[in-house]
Amino acid sequence: xxxxxxxxxxxxxxxxxxxxxxxxxxxxxxxxxxxxxxxxxxxxxxxxxxxxxxxxxxxxxxxxxxxxxxxxxxxxxxxxxxxxxxxxxxxxxxxxxxxxxxxxxxxxxxxxxxxxxxxxxxxxxxxxxx
Length: 130
What we know:
32% of the residues lie in helices and 18% in strands. By secondary structure, the chain is α/β, with parallel strands linked by helices. It has a domain at 39-126: 2-Layer Sandwich (Nucleotidyltransferase, domain 5), CATH 3.30.420. Strands 4-3-2-5-6 form a five-stranded mixed sheet, with helices on one face. It starts with 5 loop residues before the first helix and ends with a strand.
């Protein structure tokens, strides 16, 4: 009666496991631009983390990214609607550079409202203890 050689199967499975571990990319989703988040004394932790959220990053008048891709401010509402349609279960979050003009934040909030997104959290840094 034929027998299955288990030792060879274990070797093959070990090699496959090592291959998948080595070739897997572990990347942390970060904004494509360097954003200096403002500090907050009263911020509370969000249930959604930056890793699982679709990030709307605002740095300057012409530096707006949505999930790491540059977006023109005029097309932001449509881009937000498309991102929401493609990923209905992923939450949205904003990262605003502390030096970004307030008018940019207002335009982004208008675009979020036009896209039907409400209560979008904004990431901040906790206040540093002195």
